[in-house]
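Notes taken during the Thursday session

The instructor put the following on the board and asked us to keep it in front of us for the whole hour. The protein is BTB domain-containing protein. We were told not to look anything up and to reason only from what is written here. First, the residues (300 in total):
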Amino acid sequence: MASEQPAMKTASRCRAPQTAARGSFIIEGYSRHQRLGARECIQSAAFDVGGYSWCISYYPDDSDDMALYVTLLTEAAELFITRFASIDGERNPSWGTSKFMKWTELEESSYLRDDLLVIECDITVISKESEALPGASLVHVPPSDILEDFSKLERMTVGTDVTFTIDGEVFPAHKIVLAARSPVFMVQLYGPLAEGNNWESITVEDMQPTVFKSLLYFIYTDSLPDMEHLDDGDHREMAKHLLAAADWYAMDRLKLICEEMLCRIVDAKTAETMLALAEQYGCRDLKEACLQYINYYLKA
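Then, after some discussion, the predicted structure tokens were revealed:
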């Protein structure tokens, strides 16, 4: 009796390269644009995602509901699929909706501030490529977990060789990790001036313990800790202090993250102080956002 031969494994691979981007449409003077009439449309400037040109179309008509559409401007596009999400998270395979949100709900919500409405649209363009892989082994490789490992390292005291003291609170850390993430720490801990100095214990002035703790978390994990428990004021202050820390330690990515956070929460009451902050730390986008608010209210 012939022995059974093991089944040969074959596989094919379908690649789905994707490009994602966010389009923003700022409508200043919301009340002045209302009730323009049926079929009247306000469109954003065109923006590019995945090689295609798009715009956001907003209809402030006489109906009870706000209408929003995403428009593909590129001619002769073979295929595009958009998934449009309303405010409550309901998803429909559509390119827009005439009942995105009731005007009464919008005007009573926090989405409308100081007569200014910001509409943001996330678009992902997916292309499809397939190739055959005859005889390939179907091995599942899990995603990288290096950030989880570094998150554990941040919470551990094993191997730490430097401590930071701030207002009586002590934070242990690993010199080599700090130096790899910040050129300032590199010079301080391993540069010429480090020889002969005891950098095993460092006192940090002019920084709050909670801010330094968040800074360390970012150094180890490349992300910020959860701030959902903070109210708007505390969130704003944390972002401002982290921006200063990022500038001091020359951590450009963290600095940009803080600038983006502040751009989202700037308003008429904070625009002037935020503008001074933007000029102090060279934050071009934050400065532009503040000037838009200030110029709008000067015209009003």
